[in-house]
Amino acid sequence: xxxxxxxxxxxxxxxxxxxxxxxxxxxxxxxxxxxxxxxxxxxxxxxxxxxxxxxxxxxxxxxxxxxxxxxxxxxxxxxxxxxxxxxxxxxxxxxxxxxxxxxxxxxxxxxxxxxxxxxxxxxxxxxxxxxxxxxxxxxxxxxxxxxxxxxxxxxxxxxxxxxxxxxxxxxxxxxxxxxxxxxxxxxxxxxxxxxxxxxxxxxxxxxxxxxxxxxxxxxxxxxxxxxxxxxxxxxxxxxxxxxxxxxxxxxxxxxxxxxxxxxxxxxxxxxxxxxxxxxxxxxxxxxxxxxxxxxxxxxxxxxxxxxxxxxxxxxxxxxxxxxxxxxxxxxxxxxxxxxxxxxxxxxxxxxxxxxxxxxxxxxxxxxxxxxxxxxxxxxxx
Length: 381
What we know:
Residues 170-324 form the ELMO domain. Residues 1-30 are annotated as: Disordered. By secondary structure, the chain is mostly helical. The chain has 18 helices and no strands. Helix 12 crosses helix 14 (250-266), helix 14 packs across helix 16 and helix 16 (281-301) packs across helix 17. The longest helix has 21 residues, at 281-301.
């Protein structure tokens, strides 16, 4: 092989420009190993996109799996983790690198390390009660949160005061992760655009729909999609939200569930469980997921539609705050069934049909849109 031929093949392999790879036809041998050298200079994350590997792994017959199991989702998560590994010695992926998925714990750690003092001043950790309401709560209400857990509770409420900042790389990674996990896409998406309406935001900018829940609403969605078992639940609820009759804005509904979780925390409805587990954030996360699961069950079995949204959420909040332990147990049973491949939220219900309208075309009533006559400020954060 002459020098010109060597340079041509090396450049072709580096650029990933391979014309075709057919079954039973191997590329010409490379005596001096230039192809191997070329591949060694490509990071693992780039190898996934290399045309040679794409051609070898392409599905010739268009086969698609019928059922996505927890094992498949876990395998996908492990493969996606390869993005942060490189062959070069000492190299390390940037934490703010676009396209890199972010875990719930990593996003939470970000808020634990940045200065949130300006947001913390706005929070009201507990509901202020006076008169008979205060006496009744003292005698018959739930126990107070242990002193050692109050800082963690305040962090949750402080995050709920933080908005979405599209200039913050971590905020962008959270949005990208939510989008990729819910849709199964491997590609980045714009932080503004119609694709967010497809997921159930009312506009092209998710930041405009976080009223009353702040960035905590996005953290809850991140929590939901980054665990293989709750991801299956999230995708089933997303399917239900696209039903041609029972459609609802998925992400906007999730924001309202986060508002309910915030209110339950402030009213000390979760204090007993938090004290028992000696944790706040995991309890709030599980309460959010359990409430979302309960909403989907009610929505499907009682044939609710978008016109029922406000009243469904109001009843859901009342029942969730009254019996949080029962709600959490329901989630535990459901997730145990998912692990065994026995749980299905939608069953055999067919959610396909005429294309559901965009979220902006739906008249959605959330918990903040219902008038409340409670003197305890039920809808305040």
